[in-house]
Design brief:
Strands 5, 6, 7, 8, 11, 12, 13, 14 and 15 form a 9-stranded mixed beta sheet that branches. The protein has 235 residues and is of the alpha+beta class. Helices cover 21% and strands 29% of the residues. Strand 6 and strand 7 form a beta hairpin. It has 3 domains: 54 residues, Roll (Structural Genomics Hypothetical 15.5 Kd Protein In mrcA-pckA Intergenic Region, Chain A); 87 residues, Alpha-Beta Plaits (2-Layer Sandwich), CATH 3.30.70.580; 76 residues, Alpha-Beta Plaits. The structure holds uracil. Uracil (URA) binds next to helix 6. Uracil binds next to helix 6.
Amino acid sequence: MRLRDVLFSQGFGTRRHCDALILAGEVSIAGRVCVDPGETVDTRGLVLRVEGQDWPFHAKALLMLHKPAGYECSRKPSAWPSVMSLLPGPLRTRGVQPIGRLDQDTTGLLLLTDDGALIHRLTSPKKHVPKVYEALTADPVTPEQVAELLGGVVLHDDPRPVRATACEATGERSLRLTLTQGKYHQVKRMVAAAGNHVERLHRSRFGALALPDDLTPGQWRWLAGPEDILGPGGG
Ligand code: URA
C-alpha cells in the first residue's frame, strides 16, 4: 500500500494533507523518515510515527473506552460533550463510532469501531451478546425485585416482557444485571418497573471483555479484534 494511502486510511486527513505531512518529514517508520508519499509499505505489523506519535496500523479500528459520566455517545451531542472528544483526531476522522450507546450519566465499558458490519453483529438482538451492568439503587434491593428482573418486566414501548439473563444483589443497594438486548434506558426502566430506582449505572463487561482495572475514566485502548469481545471462535 502506498504511504499516502496508509495515512489516509488511518484518518490523517485528505490525501493532500497526508502528502504534506510526508513531505514535511513528519512521518517515519522504524526510525527512518519517509519523504516519498508514493513509497510502498507493508502494513503487517506496521507502526507509523506521525508528528512524534506512534500509530499502529489497523485496517479496521476497534477500541474500548472507559466512559466517564458527563459525556454523550452521540456524534452530535445536544447538552454534553461527545465521547468522541476523548479520542485523538485520526480516530474521529476515520469515522469511529460507539457500538451501542450508554447514557450521559452511565460510566464504564464503551466499544467503538469504524467497522459497520461489526457494529451490526454486536448490536443485533439476534446475537444475544451479554452486557453486564452494576447499578446503585435508591432503595434497598429486595429478593422480589431480583425475581421480577429475572422473570421479566414490561416496559411501556413493548408488550413483551424483557428479562435479565442474570441478576443478583451485590450489596444492600446494588445490583448486577446481565442483559442481551440494548433498549433505550433499559436498565433504568427495568429497575423502575421492578419498583426501585437507579442512581448510578456502570457497565463492567461487554461479551467476553471486562473493563480493565487499569483503564481509568476517559482513557481508551486498542483491541486486537472482535475475538476480544466474542471470545475465541466468535470473531
Ligand atoms: N441501560 C440504561 O438504562 N442506561 C445505559 O446507559 C445502559 C443501559
